[in-house]
Amino acid sequence: MGKKEEPETLTSASSSHRAGPGALVVIGGAESRDGAILRTFVRLAGGPAAVVAVLATASGQPDDAAREYEEAFVRLGVGRVETLRVTERSDAWRPEILERARAATAFFFTGGDQLRITSTLGGTPLDEVVHRRHREGAVIAGTSAGASAMSETMIVEGDSDDAPKKCTIKMAAGMGFLEGAVVDQHFAQRGRLGRLLAALAQNPKLLGIGVDEDTAFVVRGDRTLRVVGSQTVTVVDGRAIEETNASESLPDEPLALTHVVLHVLPSGYGFDLAAWRPLRPAPRGGAAAGGEVPRRR
């Protein structure tokens, strides 16, 4: 059976004509190539006027991965699609790569291994160009491993379908487009709640965000997150944790975490990343955003 198509709910805007940081589109992987998620990304990038740069740096088969998304974006009406073939750090200094990156209105990071992205791009001229273009309004999107790399702190690897334990995960610095959060992908499909909780046990200041397959969240300049796609985004708030044995437990012992707050958000729902509050869907009829979900006293 095919994925369920969903109407687009986000306000249309071209990032190339906005002041301030561009949108982030963080995708949990296995997204429909002609569904609401990639259509939303294309629209935010500028549609027929967009110049989308595809980076398949994470992939073990970068040419095949890049070609698949090139074809998808052309079918969806992107005016120009460029593949930035960066498989070694030396590629990130090449003048022709930097010139094409400067012209992009959006960047799309494919899946694979997130550590390939950060170890190849981190601290290079291309990394600086991509961040500068984002500050100038370019859209940044990543799927699967590309999604994990979006956050300031990223999960590099870890055990799925397991209780939270110290040994469950390894973390490293991400690309830093999404501050104060850690993102995991293929979330429900691969049973990754335990490893996201293990990440928050190590630093409850972080907001944990788990993204299901064929699902994404979009972050705008106002620091609100909105969900698009057929499944859900799970937001885990560990700031109120009252007790944890994270510092005393052995690596393979289950962790204790009390008073963790968890939100499960389907398409249309959102989250205020500044206030740490869930948001209702936008009312039908064109309103830009729904209000906060009230808490019972």
Order of strands, widest sheet: 3-2-4-5-1-10-11-14-15
Just name the CATH architecture: 3-Layer(aba) Sandwich
- The number of domains is 1
Count of DSSP-assigned helices: 7
Let me know the average pLDDT. 92
Strand and helix map with partners:
Layout: E1 24-27, H1 36-45, E2 51-55, H2 62-75, E3 80-83, H3 95-102, E4 106-109, H4 114-121, H5 125-135, E5 139-143, H6 145-148, E6 153-158, E7 169-173, E8 181-185, H7 193-202, E9 207-211, E10 215-219, E11 224-229, E12 232-237, E13 261-266, E14 270-272, E15 277-279
Parallel strand pairs: 1-5, 2-3, 2-4, 4-5, 8-9
Antiparallel strand pairs: 1-10, 6-7, 9-12, 10-11, 11-14, 12-13, 14-15
Helix pairs in contact: 3-5
Short précis:
22% of the residues lie in helices and 24% in strands. The strands form 3 sheets. It has a 9-stranded mixed sheet, with helices on both faces. Strands 8-9-12-13 form a 4-stranded mixed sheet.
Provide the descriptors you would attach to this structure in a database record.
alpha/beta; 297 residues; globular; disordered N terminus; Rossmann fold; 22% helix; single chain
Word description of this protein:
By secondary structure, this protein is an alpha/beta fold. It has a single domain, classed as Class I glutamine amidotransferase (GATase) domain (Rossmann fold, 3-Layer(aba) Sandwich), CATH 3.40.50.880. The strands form 3 sheets. The chain has a 9-stranded mixed sheet, sandwiched between helices. A 4-stranded mixed sheet has the order 8-9-12-13. Helix 3 runs parallel beside helix 5. The N terminus is likely disordered.
